[in-house]
Specification:
The protein has 12 helices and 11 strands. By secondary structure, it is of the alpha/beta class. It has one domain: TIM Barrel (Alpha-Beta Barrel). The strands form 2 sheets. Strands 1-5-6-7-8-9-10-11 form an 8-stranded parallel β-sheet. The protein has a 3-stranded antiparallel β-sheet with strand order 2-3-4, with no helix packed on it. The longest helix has 21 residues. It is globular and about 55 Å long. The two termini are about 15 Å apart.
Amino acid sequence: MPLMKIDLHTHMLPENWPDLREKFSYGGFVSLEHHVPCRARMMIDGKFFREIEDNCWSAKRRMSECDSFGITMQVISTVPVMFSYFAKPADGHDLARILNDHLAGVVAEYPRRFVALGTLPMQAPDLAIRELERCVTELHMPGVQIGTNVNGRNFDIPEIFSVVEAAQDLNAAVFVHPWEMLGKERTAKYWLGWLVGMPAETALAVCSVIFGGVLERLPRLRIGFAHGGGAFPGTIGRIEQGFLARPDLVAIDNKVNPRNYLGRMYFDSLVHDADALRNLIKLVGAERIALGSDYPFPLGEAHPGQLIESMNDLSAQTKSRLLCGTALEFLGLSKGNFT
């Protein structure tokens, strides 16, 4: 019998949404330009951002491709550029509701193929908590996806902490995805924002959670990071050395060694390299790593789960944990939800 495979990290958009520039009377928002069948351009204030195919919005095409990959279920979340944390609080809340209602509708139509993570207006903690509560209690989502920073502010500030504290109280998972990456002015060429900026941005978010004492104060919080934690796993030695050598600069809010938290956080498997995945398993354990592909984007894993399945040194039990067991635990779900 084939293994159940759950893809924790996929992105989905509505096929259409209101003209947000017109609706809110200012710019910065994404619009879709359906210029040819089955394809659309994502535009921001008339400027091209990205071209996408209909697998970004068509549930039927997604299910067909999942069948070809052997994926049992996708965890769907919005595309990070849609976070729109720059927006006025009420407008950001309005957009989050539009996106969350769409994702919830997809899950309602195909409950055995999709689970959704909501998005929140993180620029307004009170509204973010209100939308978080709606996502969990009304839309029956097991968690949310949030960005690595909120308008340049890190996870250790009280406003962001209040939202993740509410997530713990609601038993909701928090999946952290990089966006608005560091060093944008230096990374425009060679796609370096995605190749270098994203891993660094994720490592910064992980360190903010650790050094800010977030996990000390929220011991039941289920928090996960995209792209295998970015640069964090490869720099944990340096991070720990900084903690030990200069506690006066590093350990100012939390006196616990950062290595102690390796088994407290979740990561997806999207590292594109067998040795990198082996290292991540060695650091945090298969119990904290879930299959994630970044479907349907080109920097993701083209055949979700292929890296894990190709590693002959992993036991069947470890592969099962990576392909579905960790995702189920992170989301607080059981196999019965999809069989």
